[in-house]
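Consider the subject:
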Amino acid sequence: MAEARGIGAAEENVLIRVGSCSVTILPRLGGKIASIRVSGHELLQAPLAAYAPRTRTMPFAASDASGWDECLPSVAPCTVETADGPVNIPDHGDIWRVVWQPVARSANSATFRGECFSLPLALERTVTLTETGKGWQLSLDYTVTNTGGYPAPWSWAAHSLFVAEAGDRIILPSSIRELLLEGGVGDRLGKAGALVAWPIATLANGSQTDLSVAQPPESGIGDKLFAGPLSESENWCALERPHAGVRIRVSFDPAATPYLGLWACYGGWPERPGPKQVCVALEPATALVDSLAKIGPWSRVLAPGESFSWPMNVEFESIQGVDRHA
């Protein structure tokens, strides 16, 4: 049975519950999915700081840096050239910083829309929670629209920070044998742009590590990698959490979002005093890089009035009796 709360422009949060799975959305904080709870277990990274309004220029590390945000039109801060002149895009983009407006609501779904400020782009996202034979599925349907009068470059990545503990396992399709290094704390995997073997990687010091196994927070690890472009059969990834008794399986459409970002952080970030992330982010993305200013075959532009839509699904399944390569 789904439990719904009312919706309004000034509402602080929206709760969707189906059985023992609940999803909490914070429209006023960039449409953040603040909580996903399954049978009493919180699956998203807890806030590193109190929730507070975001400014247009603050770094992501100065926020709560938790839960699930959307990154649009860039992940990394950068400057891009447009027909309207150069545009400065802040850290992790615009859309996590703005108040999202309600569009539609039902017992088990909610649609909100956020407007970028650096580029004339709007993102609409519908979140739907359903019960399945194995557990629950969170379906997300996205549409980005150019609301302006000139062509707008853009890239998107889900910024879904799933809490992790030592021994949890990241599962990728067996055909994925190497990842592209975007960056990492202390360059333990080498310099940005290096190809890193998956899952057994050679560290910069010559030793080897199993990247698929989550490490304890005292390890101080923070690595960002990419896979792709991905084939039709490489349309999923998963995080197995034995103590929580759950397998988190993310699926997407490689024809629409051909890349997968992987952020594995075990106490290594933020690189300042205070609480650290201990999480694995499974991030379907439109680009193989974090910066919109880096041009490649992944680069995208929307004409004035043009829209683009894509799906993403997250399944929460009992870890018992699950085929890890399904």
User: Anything to note?
Assistant: Residues 149 and 304 are 5 Å apart (CA to CA). The domain at 2-318 is CATH 2.70.98.10 (Beta-galactosidase; Chain A, domain 5). The mean pLDDT is 94. The chain has no helices and 26 strands.
